[in-house]
Amino acid sequence: MSNRSKDKYLLVKGKAGFGNRIESLLTSILYAKLSGRRLYVDWSDPTYSDGGVNSFHTFFECPLVDPNDQFPETDSVKPEIWKGHLHKSIKDMQRILGNITGPDDSRLRLSADPSKPDYSEDLLIMWMHLERVDDLRGHLKGQYKQIAYSSTEDILKGLLKENLILRSEIRERVDHFRRERFNSEMIGLHIRYTDMKIDLPNILQKLEAVLKHRPACQIFLATDNEEIKEQLEKSHPNVVTAPHWYAVPGSHIHQNSDCADRMENGIEALVDLYLLAECDYLIIDSRSRFAYLAKLLSKSPSSRIFDVNVTKKRRLQMRSLILRLSAKLGWYSLGLRVINTGGWILNRLHL
Predict the structure, then answer these.
(1) Phi-psi map region of 142: left, alpha, beta (phi>0 left; psi -120 to 50 alpha)
(2) 13, 260, 284, 301 from 291: Cα distances, Å
(3) What is the pTM of this model?
(4) Left (φ > 0), alpha (ψ -120 to 50) or beta: where does 73 sit?
(5) What domains sit in the chain, N to C, each tagged with a CATH number?
(6) Which residues of 166-189 are buried (b: 16+ CB within 10 A; e: fewer)?
(7) pLDDT reported for residue 64
């Protein structure tokens, strides 16, 4: 994938919570670097925005993105369905499309394919539910050759560290809470338990195992369920939580009509996220992509990070290993075909 002139653009749309949209953005950042396209990020969708304000610039700074830039109004767009609709959200476009059969169908119809380097259109629209770094491995050449052999997780960590800088006002909220409330070794505990319910029994079992060896630890709890918060505070006197808005237990926290300030709701979520990353130990279920993001940000050694979603972890490790070896041997396309057509083998092996 060779560098292009600066009149080629990549517009990244946001959808869902921070875990999904940041994984999507990190993949898109890598694509923009490889293709030389100018990057725009549009998070004006109502998940974390009030009144159509682009919330990305409230949350982050990015060296590839100028907050004063505007993407061009053009008919040279891919996918073509976006012509005349460049300012609409993914959800708006899904309504226009209709007959959406699932997340993959929506992505295929509304996003450029990150594995394809040679789009001629001036403006590409890109979004995805999860990272797709492996789709780009065959194009990691030249100055990017070294990371072609890195794990997907390491590539994402590098992209996150170098390209998404938390705004100073939010960083100060994180640092202030840490100074005031983190008084000993900390166990970061993430429990998503509203619209999506993680493996709570295994999470709590792992918590007790860590506390058995480190009984003086405090627990920093990040949860979207106020009942979980109350139960943990009753059973463990050393639980601390950052203040934020809670949805009614069981209801969706994103785009909830009861939330009076969605931008502030996003800031509170980021405070939780970066406080989790400051903890000495981390206990998560990476089926929640927010939790996986905390893992990417964490400075703790892997021996202190506990992910109860072991089956998915093994499968992703196997996928990454196949693609890394294939790229090293120059067989990237073959490796991708093995992944795409041989998934049933991994299922049979329970990997």
Answers:
(1) left
(2) 21, 25, 6, 16
(3) 0.84
(4) beta
(5) 9-166 (3.40.50.11340), 168-308 (3.40.50.11350), 311-348 (no CATH)
(6) beeebeebbeebbeeebeeebbbb
(7) 95
User: Tens of pLDDT along 233-255?
Assistant: 999 989 999 998 888 776 777 66
**Which residue is it, tokens 């329970």?**
350
Distance CA 169, CA 264 (A): 12
The pLDDT of residue 174: 98
pLDDT at 319: 52
Q: How far apart are CA 93 and CA 125, in angstroms?
A: 12
Pair of tokens at residue 4: 């292009």
In terms of C-beta distances under 8 Å and separation of at least 24 residues, what long-range contacts does 103-107 make, across chains too? 103/129
- Tell me how far apart the alpha carbons of residues 282 and 301 are, in angstroms, rounded to a whole number: 10
Question: Distance between CA atoms of 258 and 253, rounded to whole angstroms?
Answer: 9
CB 178 within 8 A of CB 280: no
Q: How many CB atoms lie within 10 A of CB 235?
A: 10
Dihedral Cα 312, 133, 89, 194, nearest 10 deg: 20
pLDDT at 101: 62
Could you give the strand order of the β-sheet that contains 9-13, starting from the edge strand earlier in sequence? 38-42, 9-13, 123-126, 77-78
What CA dihedral angle connects 263, 265, 270 and 276, to 10 degrees?
A: 180
Q: Contact, 291 vs 285, CB < 8 A?
A: yes
DSSP string of 140-198, one letter each residue: --GGGTGGGGS-HHHHHHHHHHHH-EE-HHHHHHHHHHHHHH--S-EEEEEE-BSSSB-
- List the one residue out of 71, 70, 16, 76 whose CA is nearest residue 47: 16
Query: Is 142 a residue whose pLDDT tops 70?
Result: yes
Per-residue pLDDT at 318: 52
3-state percent breakdown (helix, strand, coil) of the chain, nearest 5: 50, 10, 40
The predicted structure's pLDDT at residue 311: 58
